[in-house]
Amino acid sequence: MNKGRLEAFSDGVLAILITIMVLGLKPPQTADLSGLIALGPELATYLISFVYLGIYWSNHHHMLHATTRVNGKILWANLHLLFWLSLLPFVTDWMDEARFAPTPMAAYGVVLLLSAAAYTILQNAIISEEGPDSKLAKAMGKDVKGKVSLLFYIVAIPASFFRVWISGLLYVGVALIWLVPDRRIESRL
Amino acid sequence: MNKGRLEAFSDGVLAILITIMVLGLKPPQTADLSGLIALGPELATYLISFVYLGIYWSNHHHMLHATTRVNGKILWANLHLLFWLSLLPFVTDWMDEARFAPTPMAAYGVVLLLSAAAYTILQNAIISEEGPDSKLAKAMGKDVKGKVSLLFYIVAIPASFFRVWISGLLYVGVALIWLVPDRRIESRL
Amino acid sequence: MNKGRLEAFSDGVLAILITIMVLGLKPPQTADLSGLIALGPELATYLISFVYLGIYWSNHHHMLHATTRVNGKILWANLHLLFWLSLLPFVTDWMDEARFAPTPMAAYGVVLLLSAAAYTILQNAIISEEGPDSKLAKAMGKDVKGKVSLLFYIVAIPASFFRVWISGLLYVGVALIWLVPDRRIESRL
Amino acid sequence: MNKGRLEAFSDGVLAILITIMVLGLKPPQTADLSGLIALGPELATYLISFVYLGIYWSNHHHMLHATTRVNGKILWANLHLLFWLSLLPFVTDWMDEARFAPTPMAAYGVVLLLSAAAYTILQNAIISEEGPDSKLAKAMGKDVKGKVSLLFYIVAIPASFFRVWISGLLYVGVALIWLVPDRRIESRL
Fold it and tell me: How many angstroms separate the CA atoms of A54 and D185, rounded?
């Protein structure tokens, strides 16, 4: 089975997710700079969710590039990942409307955590198909960045009920860790 | 005529359908967990419709993979399938807003039934082009899963006027039958 | 210059146009069949616009399939076509909201007429690049269907101010003429 | 790393951006021509933003066509460009709702300026990967059109606070400069 359509479909879903969030951005209520400033939090959450989806697209691109074949299990692991990512605009909106209240902040982290878990499942499904001696398996190595991210999310979710800015910082922190595309794969290929 | 653009266009439409449903998910009305719990039914119908569209994408992927050429009839059979699938977000919304009233529950089943019928028409159009000795024709065999699904829908539609939970169970049941990608094709190729 | 991205971009825009119209379909206001029946006109205009976009996609597919190379002029002729088609959901909505009043009915025809003109311009740009002896130029021949369509639109636009059902019939008529994919090209290739 | 998915993803995002703006076009409030005329400004801004996105797609197409390979830096330079372009529907809406007030007019220019800067960064990232003797580097030459555009935007942004029609004219002017696809690249290839 070839991977072309899996890439094309994932590109389609990610491209739509990344752009429908902009539909949630209502024009400022006033025609001056204060209107734009009042929208600051919405623009900031749009930016962070855009960056997260960009990171997933970029890493997905790298991982599939190193993949030689796909099977039914991989197709569904990929749809599972897309399902959690599709909830990102939903929790972003909630976080905005609730003005960064603890529960929506935690919900944002839960969606990020489940997306990361789904990505790991997809990665394992691909490695299991490719074999332990494949380029991808070797390139992944210990997957330190992946494990650190999961740890950050697990800390950030309960933290939002104490200090929301801590979980906010942790979400930004994970994004910064990943902003650099996965050089492990790039350097091996 | 090559099948590349038919796949690309179908991927585009399915990717958009699967993601526009998330636009229908309004953020919870309160900033605590009770707001999220109140959205439970919407999230459940989002999940089931997402899974249905995922199943169609996955089976479409498998079927087209086993297809060697397309003609004008296949193009239109494919557009016909996409038309019925495009109504899925519409009936999902109706079911949500009417809180699982009998008529919207039946309407959901009608759209699923007509989508399944359209898929069968597309399959027959492809088999008729490929010939009875083609890999696809052999892989399809008796198409037991397809026939069981049609039967389930035909029972579920009237059942919604007696007990809505029966049709709900049947819709979930069909999804579970298909969640495993079509191994008939996969094992033959 | 290769035609792959022109096809991919056009597929993307057409796939989105064909599916965003479904966003305009609000769920029925009541939870019974009368609610669905009240939406009959919206569903009918959704169907006709879906068919028109399907026709353009199908004919575009056939035409580009017979095209060997593209230039800057063809890129812009294609964007020009996509611009007019992008207004189809807009005039469809207007026609619905205004309950088939004469002006929106005429506006629908104007958008169809300008789309058809844009398609002809694109076709001429491609034939001019391919040369008069190309397969496409020969396959087009006298383009009777194209000319009949233009005539129908030109009659339908003023007719909507006298009897809206006449223009309605003419729009359906053109769709029926084109529903069969362009056999001129198919038979030559 | 191949450039196919970068093109496909960019095509997806641009196709969605170009078509979601049409979702912002509400049907006219009355069923006669006066309703359509009242929407004139919205239609005009839709047209200009459509043309801008078309220009970016066309130039992106040309530039990537002349690109032989991509790296992680290019992926992110491309996502950065898509981020600024994704804000175009947002500022277009604001400009419409605020009836061309100075601040939204300036904001439109700021988004155009940052998109142009992001395009230049992407171009430099590609040239740096391709090398100074590559076809692309030579085709770009002095990039007069790019520099003139930046100058126009820099004048237009403050100008909107004195006379909005001046910045309006400058935005239309830049669009006209670029409407012709980049013949520098086309003629060299």
Answer: 29
Q: Per the CB < 8 Å rule, is A65 touching D20? A: no
Chain C environment of D12 (Cβ under 8 Å)? 12
CB contact D7 to A (< 8 Å): no
Task: Mark yes or no for CB contact A79/B61 under 8 Å.
Answer: no
- DSSP class per residue in D132-180: TTSHHHHHHTT-HHHHHHHHHHHHHHHHTTT-HHHHHHHHHHHHHHHHS
Q: Is C2 on the interface with D (CB under 8 A)?
A: yes
Q: CA angle at residue D47 from D41 to D51, to 5 degrees?
A: 150
Chain A hits for B64, CB-CB cut-off 8 Å, are: 5
Nearest to D5 among A11, A33, A189 (CB): A11
Do the chains contact at B18 and A13, CB–CB below 8 Å? yes
Q: C15 with B13: CB under 8 angstroms?
A: yes
Q: Which two tokens stand for residue C89?
A: 């959901």
Tokens representing B173 are 């049941």
Q: Are B96 and B42 in contact (CB under 8 A)?
A: yes
Q: Would you state the structure tokens that stand for residue B43, as one six-digit string? A: 């999230």
| AA identity, residue C177 | I
Structure tokens at D49: 């933003």
- Residue of chain A whose alpha carbon sits nearest to that of B66: A1
* Contact (CB<8Å) A32/D2: no
CA nearest A113: which of A71, A161, A170? A170
Tell me the angle at which helices C40-65 and C88-97 cross, rounded to the nearest 10 degrees.
160
How does residue B117 score in pLDDT terms, banded at 50, 70 and 90?
very high
Q: Does B179 touch chain A (CB under 8 A)?
A: yes
Residues in chain A with CB shorter than 8 Å from the CB of D87 are 22
Cβ pair C116, C148 in contact under 8 A:
no
pLDDT in tens, chain A (189 residues): 578 888 888 988 999 998 888 888 888 989 889 999 999 999 999 999 999 999 999 889 888 888 888 888 898 999 999 999 999 999 999 999 999 999 999 999 999 999 999 999 999 999 998 888 888 887 776 778 888 899 999 999 999 999 999 999 999 999 988 886 555 555 555
User: How many CA atoms within 13 Å lie on the side-chain side of D98?
Assistant: 26
Cα–Cα dist B57/B61, whole Å: 6
Residue with the two structure tokens 């029972």: B155
Predicted confidence at residue B134, as pLDDT, reads 82
Going from the C-alpha of B41 to that of each of B87, B92, B105, C119, the distances in angstroms are 19, 11, 13, 45
- pLDDT bin (cut points 50, 70, 90) of residue B136 is confident
Q: For residues D188 and D139, is the Cβ–Cβ distance under 8 A?
A: yes
CA–CA min distance B63, chain C (Å): 20
> What sign results for the dihedral spanned by CA atoms D146, D22, A49, A140?
negative
Cβ pair C13:D8 closer than 8 A: no
Average of per-residue pLDDT across D16-35: 88
